[in-house]
## 1
Amino acid sequence: MTFLIDGYNLMHAVGLLRPGVPELATAVKDRPATIRVVFDAGSAPRASPETEYRGVRVLFAFRETADDLIEALLLAENVPAHLTVVSNDTRLQAAGRRRGSAVNSCEQFVEWLIEESSESAPRNLQPDKPDQNANANEMAAWLAAFSTPKRKKRPPRS
């Protein structure tokens, strides 16, 4: 599993250094995932190579936005189902879903980091879609459960 993270978006969502949020490199150290954090660097004097800091890969988007670079990385991925896009940006979330990648908000990703158990990779925390192949009885049960109740007829006044 590889996470493509909108770096400034994540930092903004967690209040940069919110108490209780672990340092990213420390939090992912024992997790079975590759972390790639992408930052805007449009006004940088020159491009810089992808670097690694304590297991976290860092990319700076040169002459483009981090969103543009993340979308390009999504398009270049041979197996997009192995990617999880982490951003609160609806454009990036939509791009990830179009490619078949998992999508987590920044808050969902941080919750996963904070979890005590590191035994499994995070699940896609987006709500599951309803089963498209429900049979007639299942559909009737769902409609009964979520439909507006029918009003009872009042007896005629005398």
## 2
Amino acid sequence: MDETKDLSRKEQLAILVRYVHGSVIKERALGTYPMRSLTADALSTFIINKLHSLGLDWQNCVGQCYDGASVMSGWANGVQAKIHNQFPNAVYIHCYAHRLNLVLIDSISDMSELSDFFDTVQTLYNFISNAHTRHEIFVAAQKKT
């Protein structure tokens, strides 16, 4: 699971499952879902209810994977703790894709050219996304090209 803002700047929760069918490991995206609240209570309740509504049995869940944000990974009150309290087989694992991202960020932090590039991209993103009018103009320019 991971949450992010979509193009319209609404919070979305992406849910993916990895499972074994026969002897083959498979992974499927179940969808993205708009979220009004990003508290651990709201997220864990939504995740549990969504997987139940899709007919997935939590008793078969042996893991849950999120980023390291405290709302997700918190050992006492994070999403993983709330789910683990109800479903003890669902062991938390820090997402390897997020770990790789952290390693890459740390690796390039000493390279001034790359650091400057990503700082510029982040500043541009912040500038465009922090004002509704600028964001609309940017989207219109993208559509035009």
